[in-house]
Design goal:
12 helices; three-stranded mixed β-sheet; single chain; 37% helix; alpha/beta
């Protein structure tokens, strides 16, 4: 039924973008995806090919989020757009605009092209980072789609501000054009799960570092983990679900401390988890590490903080339900170890 419908996926060479392509192809859609450089086309095809045969149903085109060229052609003839591409660095830049400008301008560039081309609905990938850093009353309760981070708070990381500013810009442009029903935004938590090919997204670092023994101990850090396959599935169902129109949909799974992730790995993987640390690292040690390690500095502000989110809006409006987080952690680890993952899609 979907064979005559084409969906544009921006950032097809990325971790989530790749799984969105897989999900769409599985559901019978034709997919067009953008990369900045067509030299990456083969990489995209190999990643998708690790899950299914795309045949002629996958087209790869060049388009840069910082340049108008190519976007009108990219959206031409597409019924839907999944705007997944956005910068996600391992360390925060000194100049926030290095992230804010491409995130905001890229989102606006894609949306303008989609609206002008008559695309039925655009789904934009935001982040829980755009939800969790707002008013003081957020403490101690489940956050919902009504919550917003403060984009003017310069104490927030450039990444957090970039996701918030980009999402606000998206809602701003559709309101200007009276087209709110043609936009959905999704706020994923920490995305993990099986890898596609040799891709190593930064979001997989927690599980990868634990498995390889590259974490000297377990800091008091945690995230709301979510399976990449479930996030991709929500993007696809959000394209067409009538009640999803004009909505923010949070996709953040159960909160796990790093010690919880380590325990799951040791319990389920046995000898393969032999390098996973068991001792905990005091907060003052982590703050000391942050002085010399930019990747630690990016998360040091989260020490001891537990934030949870309500998935009720996404579930009620789309019928979507994520898999158990333990399954996600184990599938992620086995995939990183090069082991087969049962029912990977």
């Amino acid at each position: 039924m979907n064979g005559d419908r084409t969906v544009l996926v921006t950032g097809g060479s990325g971790y989530l973008g790749g799984w969105c392509i897989v999900e769409l192809l599985q559901q019978g859609y034709r997919v067009r995806t953008t990369v900045r450089d067509l030299a990456r086309e083969q990489q995209v095809r190999e990643k998708v090919g690790s899950q299914l045969d795309a045949g002629e149903r996958l087209e790869v085109v060049a388009a840069d989020l910082l340049n108008d060229e190519g976007w009108a052609e990219a959206v031409d003839g597409c019924a839907y757009v999944l705007h997944v591409a956005s910068p996600f660095p391992p360390a925060q830049p000194k100049d926030p605009d290095e992230l804010i400008v491409p995130a905001r301008e890229g989102t606006l560039r894609v949306l303008r092209a989609a609206l002008a081309a008559g695309v039925e609905r655009t789904v934009v990938t935001s982040s829980v980072a755009a939800v969790r850093n707002g008013t003081p009353d957020q403490t101690g309760r489940e956050l919902t789609e009504q919550d917003w981070s403060d984009p003017q708070n310069t104490k927030l990381t450039p990444y957090t501000r970039s996701k918030t500013i980009a999402e606000l810009a998206a809602w701003g442009i559709v309101r200007e054009q009276g087209a709110e029903e043609r936009l959905v935004t999704i706020q994923p938590g920490a995305i993990v799960g099986p890898v596609l090919g040799d891709d190593r997204s930064y979001s997989l670092e927690v599980v990868e570092r634990l498995l390889e023994g590259r974490m000297p101990g377990l800091p008091q850090l945690g995230f709301s983990f979510i399976d990449v396959r479930d996030v991709a599935a929500l993007h696809v169902v959000a394209m067409t679900a009538p009640e999803a129109a004009g909505q923010r949909l949070i996709a953040a799974g159960s909160f796990l401390w790093f010690s919880d992730v380590a325990a799951i790995l040791r319990d389920r993987l046995g000898e393969d988890a032999r390098k996973v640390p068991t001792r905990k690292i005091p907060n003052f040690v982590v703050r000391g590490m942050a002085l010399v390690d930019p990747s630690v500095r990016s998360v040091a502000g989260e020490l001891g903080q537990k934030t949870t989110y309500s998935l009720e809006n996404a579930k009620r409006r789309t019928g979507w339900t994520p898999r158990p987080v333990e399954e996600t952690i184990v599938d992620c680890a086995r995939s990183l170890l090069g082991q087969p993952v049962a029912a990977a899609v």
